[in-house]
Amino acid sequence: MATARPAWMEKPKPAVTLLKGVVIGLIVLVMLYPFWYVIVASLSTAQGLRQHTGFLLAPAEFTLDAYRAVLSGDIVTQSLLVSVFVTVVGTLLAVVLTVLTAYGLTRTRDVPGSRALLYLILFTMLFTAGIIPNYLLIKGVGLLDSLGALILPGAISAFNLVVVRNFFMELPGELLDSARVDGAGEWRILSQIVVPLSKSIIAVIALFYGVSYWNEFFNALLYLQTPQKWPVQLVLNQYVVQASPLEQISFGSRMDSQTAPRTIQMAIVIVATLPILVVYPFLQKYFTKGVLTGAIKG
Fold first, then answer.
1. How many structural domains are present in the chain?
2. What is the helix (H) or strand (E) element at residue 95, kind and residue range?
3. How does pLDDT run across 280-296, given as a tens digit for each residue?
4. In a designed cystine with 286, which of 88, 108, 172, 200 is the match (CB 3.0 to 4.6 A)?
């Protein structure tokens, strides 16, 4: 006589499956509607948005005036260029430094003090200096009110470093030893063997660093005084969250006075979010493989 299957292994009834589908569908709609609202509101006219009541499912009198107003303003265009520069340069620098440091920390038996350095890096994951010591450090090294203050403090993430190191530790040691027997140096082993075998984890940390640099606004708020050096996330915070009038900063007469501030706020949100949304799908296939492989053992 066959034993009864546990409750969690039984095939669900059609009514239960339908109920789960309805609940999941409602959750998805609740989560997606705010994003959809931002898109359709940014494509609506000022008058149509003011007169509309209830849920906004389609643009109220379709127009691109909000995007024209945003992209014609100096502060938003300049902030986009600043964010692109900080993200590209910062990500490249951070990936290079992380890969070099992680590979060096895999040689704990050959490099004196490397294990102590690893423990010191792990210590920074638990304790940070705080806002005031960091501000004094940035001021002391002369990075105040410069883009370097947005790039250098986040050049190496302890979490990313540990993940990459663990990934390197999982590479076959026999392969690296055979390369050394053939006369290959550490630089050649890293560039021609380790890095090509680690494309997935490098893509993952590049995504992490890129999103971090693109979303950076707090350090910009602390260290930058010149509006022309603001990244787009700080502009987004000042105008959407703090409700500061951008006209007083740099829009000038080119701001369309007939465009509702809410439509401009939504347009800035889209402009600030779209670049990362475009890049993410190209790196998503590496995400699960890279993180899981690098985080299982160490």
1. 2
2. helix 74-105
3. 777 666 666 555 554 44
4. 200
Cβ(233)–Cβ(216) below 8 Å? yes
Q: Which of 151, 145, 143, 131 is nearest to 230 (CA)?
A: 145
The sign of the torsion formed by the CA atoms of 219, 264, 83, 144 equals negative
Residues 50 and 174 in one domain: no
Q: What are phi and psi of 14, to 5 degrees?
A: -55, -40
Domain extent, residue 54, equals 16-63
Confidence class for position 260, pLDDT limits 50, 70, 90: low
How many angstroms separate the CA atoms of 85 and 151, rounded?
10
Rounded CA-CA distance 79/69 in Å is 15
Distance separating alpha carbons of residues 200 and 104, to the nearest angstrom: 19
Mean pLDDT, to the nearest integer, of 74-97? 90
What is the distance between the alpha carbons of residues 231 and 216, in angstroms, rounded to a whole number? Answer: 8
Which one of 2-6, 37-41, 93-97 scores highest in mean pLDDT? 93-97
Query: How much is the pLDDT for 257?
Result: 46
CA 228, 230, 221: angle at the middle one, nearest 5?
130
Three-class SS of residue 289?
Answer: helix
Q: Is residue 2 part of a domain?
A: no
Task: Report yes or no: 82 and 230 within 8 Å, Cβ to Cβ.
Answer: yes
SS3 154: helix
Query: In a 3-state reduction of DSSP, which class is residue 180?
Result: helix
Same domain (yes/no): 262, 209? yes
End-to-end CA distance of the chain: 47
Question: Measured between alpha carbons, how far is 33 from 27 in angstroms, rounded to an integer?
Answer: 10
Q: DSSP letters along 10-60, please?
A: SPPPHHHHHHHHHHHHHHHHHHHHHHHHHHHHHTB-HHHHHH--S---S-S
